[in-house]
Amino acid sequence: MDPSVGLHTGGPSDPSAAAEKLCASETPPPVGFIHPGIAQAIYAVLAELGADPDILIAEVGLDRRLFDRGSKLAPSVSYAALGRLIARGAERTGCRHLGLLVGQRTALASLGLIGLLMRHSDTVGAALRALEAHLGLQNRGAVVGLGIARGVAVLSYSPYEPGAEGAALHAERALATATNVLRALCGFDWAPLEVLLPRSAPPDTAPYRGFFRAPVRFDEEVAALVFPAGLLEQPIAGAAPAIRRKVEERLRRLATDQPSTRTDELRRYLCTEVTRNRCKAERVARLMLVTRRTLTRRLRAEGTSFKQLANETQFRLAGQLLADTGMSLTQISAALHFSEPAAFSHAFRRWSGMTPSAWRLENRPKDKLDQHHEDPRPRGKGDIECGGTFALGLVPS
Questions:
Q1: How far is Cα 294 from Cα 292, in angstroms, rounded to an integer?
Q2: What pLDDT digit, counting tens, does each position of 239-257 carry?
């Protein structure tokens, strides 16, 4: 859900011409990179807040030319570098909802080919499944998942590197973009049942309630929009099957041309799986239609293993939750499917060389240290199935 700000999909008089143009121009980014349009949105918001974006860009080591609309410098930009920029910008401006402001600037037309496919899908559910299936062709810094259970649907957003600086701000930006997308498909009055954010609540939560027009739950292990599952069956007015077929064919060609290793596929899967089910090699092998021995052999050929990738994913998410949320160690342990907090603490010390509490003290933003408290509430485990996995705690109470 990372936009190309200012990209238009053509007027109503010639939507087919817009499809032709987009189909000819889109190219997939490498792993860990996203479309540079998000950079332009960050630049604009920082300038509006009175910061000097050029100084911040230099501080994080990005090329200033990436932020010029229509720049031919590169077709993508580092997700982690933009995370550093948005985190530095929030600190410099004192705006704790900077990610929300960036996401509010984006619209369905900003998603390029994927946005065009969604606009001309038969139903809202088909549009969101298209986003889930094809987002990697535009954004290889995060994945989305769509799940349904007991009449409730959940659209979740999971970064490849949740422990990276600015990951929580990226998440709220993505959910704001998703909300704009759903309002474009369903009508301006659309609002979710709930919004879940993996960050502590800022001092002023009114901007979140005002934009989402729904309850916002902070200190969650995932970023997600929760809404009635019946919405997925809603037809999209004005959808053109001919345009949809043209865009689908272009996306198929892009997917064929985009190199993908087993390591990359597994990392994408683990991004959404790590808080939904205990990560087991046997289950993953079945989903990939190979034996566990074959999966092990292929990962070894790529210089890694299932255990290594699962540990990396758990460590990155644990680090992000420790730094950005008020979740207790017990809650984080349960979210990552450890048998008890002591087992989580032992694993975290093995991964990082320090205790979870020491990590939290060292990595938590300075403005939050005095406010920090661990949320004592017990956290239940829901059973919303998301793309073959299970989301946790996502059913509205």
A1: 5
A2: 999 999 999 998 888 877 7
